[in-house]
Amino acid sequence: RAKAEGRGRACVFAPEDEQRTLHRVNTESLLREALEGEYFELHYQPVCDLGTQRIVGAEGLVRMNHPEKGLLAPGDFIDVAEETGLIVPLGEWVLEEGARQLAQWHRELGCDITLSLNVSSKQLQSSRFAGRVAEICEKYSVPSGHLVLEITESMLMNNSDQVLDVMNRLKAQGCLLSIDDFGTGFSSLSYLQKFPLDVLKIDRAFVMDIEANETHRALVRAIVSMSEALKLRVITEGVETEGQMRCIRQQGCELGQGYYFSRPLKAAVFNEWIRSSETLSV
Ligand code: C2E
Ligand code: MG
Ligand code: MG
Ligand code: MG
User: Which residues form the EAL domain (predicted)?
Assistant: First the structure.
């Protein structure tokens, strides 16, 4: 198309393409610089029991803290990290940092929360992935059954045989597995049953308007009862207000995550948050 017409013309005909290429090239070098300079940080957002309002777990969310550009959210770089394969070293860093933190919480704070980490499809497709997870868990003495790996619904639907194989290995190693952003893909109920899942996270799209939208309330109730049948725990994402929290609880949801409880926090702030809330379960 426009490309065949020469560089100057391409700019006229497809400015978005050109911009996307530029963004990609810039972001790729930014990612390399950040990996090299160790500019990444893992922030932690609590997952809370809607009945007791206590923390039961956390999700680790990566950020880039660039000396000149400041704090960048995953939306600014994750896509490019996936396209370029840089998500593999970045994902290893996330796993290692998360495992280290999880073991420390258990050891020093004496609290037995779980930690969920997001895994990209590139990582899951690597034959080394399950082995690396095992090595890292061993290295930091991660308490078994407390590391949760989150996989999006769309990842289950592509390359499902290979993904299933890796998931079975992770499961055998003692990891818990979670399906993220549930409800945005098109997986069927019977399809979910193929995978060794422990947790299902309902996408925040259902929560945003839950108080006004009877269809979304009904869908959330249906997902909850389906999850009971499949023996999955349910976490509702994106809970921002007390009204939404009450409403999802009324639909039978047990656990929630969102700004209502807390934004994702730097490790030191999160640790304070844990200390000051009555969560110590020992
Ligand atoms: P996700 O795994 O679905 O994570 C939830 C996202 O929703 C996070 O955005 C979180 O900050 C945001 N969030 C939490 N509560 C609320 C709320 O009440 N309202 C609203 N509007 N948003 C809320 P974040 O941190 O920008 O991450 C975006 C996505 O980037 C994540 O979605 C995940 O898919 C990806 N991601 C984050 N960290 C990693 C990572 O270490 N590895 C990989 N592969 N992907 C990651
Ligand atoms: Mg997630
Ligand atoms: Mg999600
Ligand atoms: Mg998401």
Answer: 24-278
